[in-house]
Task: inverse folding
């Protein structure tokens, strides 16, 4: 048998080789030029399968390149036989053939492009692929690093939204050996912004209306990008009304219309206003809100002294705490209304020049003092709880908004009460008599002692002039002796009525708690005075029980108060001097 594997080439093949001209042999040698490793060569597609592309670069062997390297470059491109591509010669395989790379060929071209772009201060297009530590990874043909600080003119809140987007970038620096490229989008934006700023400097004018995008929100206002420079709209220029915080009205990124209030060309500082796009609502306030008008508003602020009510944007009025309720001791405003409440109020006064409106709530409620006289006539007996106790009296709750005062002098006919708390306690329920109602001054006077008869009204009958009485000494002074005849009834024996003999002072002659007899020489129930005389009683005894004529003829009360006694004493001193 013949082994075909070892048979030499046929004679026909030898003849065809011999018949080839020298020129044909030279051309064939040119087409099979040996490619150097590390170079970029042009190859043609000679075959395609499901995974790879067969590339002929003119060497003595053809090589495959994975389809993924072509799809990475352009996913939508359809590769056909005959297409030509630049490929990188990585190495020669030991078994023969070449190892080619389309990606590395592209990278080499990209690095050359990067160097040229940086030298020319140009830009390169790239697609943001994903987030990495400190920034974003961008495909510009090779992976490039985009620091956070170079993404935009201002910090970007949603970085993930940038993934997949394509932008132009500047080359900041690169190192080909380390495959390191740092790029910037901010540098391009700054150049664009500088150009726009120069243009704005020639067109921006005070009073001009312009649109801008909000770039930042602070406690004191909004920063707005006008398309070349930033302007500040202070919180006081956002609205004619009250603004608690700019973020309550606007969001970052929102486009709004503003008015140029002031433009300093030297510093490029621009002051903006939103409320100036509308007229000042206070111009129509006097006609819109006349005194006496009933209006509805929203509570926007609460203080210790009242509440501020917004009637419309930019127009607020104050309901003072005293105008919230008819009660003289109103509760704290926060106990009556809350911020955000819609309430009805009455306009009390308008001061357009100072932009002040006084409002009232109680004016829309019945005034309890309008009917108090009918409900509680003088002399009527009422019952109520003690709401407060002071040095001068007791306050009784009558009804909502009305308290009655029982003065300390109206607590008892007879007792000397130093402080009402000696007899009464807060919260205790007591009865009292209506003494007086002063509607204009909103005063309601009550009395407890008036529940019982005044013992002094019977004093004239119980202690007629000339009658002999006996009582207990309660006080001894230089000008006389005080004698208690019964509970709440005291008489005075003036120093001149102590004895027939002249007495300078009764001090030392009498002691407190001793019993003393005397004759009644005058009585005044209205003045609550009883004059007594020891001297007259002695003379009465000497006259067989007859009242001395000089005392019987007295119709007016003698001195029985400290003031009367001082006057009397002064008169005696004058007589003695004369």
Result:
């Amino acid at each position: 048998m013949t082994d075909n594997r070892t048979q030499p080439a046929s004679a026909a093949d030898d003849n065809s080789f011999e018949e080839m001209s020298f020129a044909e042999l030279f051309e064939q040698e040119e087409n099979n030029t040996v490619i150097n490793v590390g170079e970029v060569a042009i190859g043609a597609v000679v075959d395609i399968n499901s995974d790879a592309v067969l590339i002929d670069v003119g060497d003595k062997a053809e090589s495959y390149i994975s389809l993924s390297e072509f799809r990475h470059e352009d996913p939508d491109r359809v590769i056909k036989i005959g297409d030509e591509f630049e490929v990188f010669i990585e190495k020669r395989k030991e078994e023969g053939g070449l190892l080619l790379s389309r990606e590395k060929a592209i990278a080499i071209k990209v690095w050359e492009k990067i160097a040229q772009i940086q030298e020319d201060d140009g830009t390169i297009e790239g697609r943001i692929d994903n987030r990495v530590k400190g920034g974003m990874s961008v495909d510009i043909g090779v992976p490039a690093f985009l620091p956070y600080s170079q993404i935009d003119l201002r910090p970007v809140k949603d970085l993930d939204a940038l993934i997949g987007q394509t932008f132009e970038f500047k080359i900041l620096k690169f190192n080909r050996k380390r495959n390191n490229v740092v790029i910037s989008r901010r540098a391009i934006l700054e150049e664009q912004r500088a150009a726009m700023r120069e243009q704005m400097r020639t067109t921006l004018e005070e009073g001009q209306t312009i649109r801008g995008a909000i770039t930042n929100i602070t406690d004191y206002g909004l920063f707005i990008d006008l398309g070349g420079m930033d302007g500040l709209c202070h919180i006081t220029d956002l609205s004619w009304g009250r603004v608690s915080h700019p973020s309550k009205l606007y969001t970052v990124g929102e486009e709004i219309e503003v008015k140029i209030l002031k433009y300093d060309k030297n510093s490029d500082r621009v002051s903006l206003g939103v409320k100036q796009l509308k007229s000042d609502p206070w111009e129509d306030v006097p006609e819109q809100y006349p005194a006496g008008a009933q209006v509805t508003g929203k509570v926007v602020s609460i203080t210790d002294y009242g509440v501020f009510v917004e009637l419309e944007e930019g127009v607020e009025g104050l309901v003072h705490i005293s105008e919230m309720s008819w009660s003289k001791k109103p509760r704290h405003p926060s106990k009556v209304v809350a911020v955000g409440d819609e309430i009805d109020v009455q306009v009390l006064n308008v001061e357009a020049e100072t932009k002040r409106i006084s409002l009232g709530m109680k004016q829309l409620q019945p005034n309890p003092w309008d009917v108090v006289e009918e409900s509680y006539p003088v002399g009527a007996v009422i019952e109520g709880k003690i709401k407060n106790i002071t040095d001068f009296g007791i306050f009784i709750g009558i009804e909502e908004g009305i308290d009655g005062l029982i003065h300390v002098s109206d607590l008892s006919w007879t007792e000397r009460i130093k402080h009402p708390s000696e007899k009464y306690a807060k919260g205790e329920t007591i009865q009292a008599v209506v003494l007086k109602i002063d509607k204009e001054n909103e005063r309601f006077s009550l009395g407890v002692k008036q529940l019982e008869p005044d013992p002094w009204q019977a004093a004239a009958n119980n202690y007629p002039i000339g009658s002999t009485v006996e009582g207990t000494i309660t006080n001894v002074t230089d000008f006389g002796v005080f004698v208690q005849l019964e509970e709440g009834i005291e008489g005075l024996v003036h120093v001149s009525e102590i004895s027939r003999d002249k007495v300078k002072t009764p001090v030392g002659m009498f002691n407190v708690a001793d019993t003393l007899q005397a004759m009644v020489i005058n009585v005044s129930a209205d003045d609550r005075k009883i004059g007594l005389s020891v001297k007259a009683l002695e003379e009465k005894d000497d006259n067989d029980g007859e009242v001395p004529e000089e005392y019987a003829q007295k119709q007016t009360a003698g001195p029985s108060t400290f003031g009367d006694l001082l006057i009397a004493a002064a008169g005696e001193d004058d007589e003695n001097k004369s």
Observations:
- Residues 132 and 575 are 117 Å apart (CA to CA).
- Confidence is low (pLDDT under 50) at residues 1-20, 25-32, 555-563.
- The chain is about 20% helix and 35% strand.
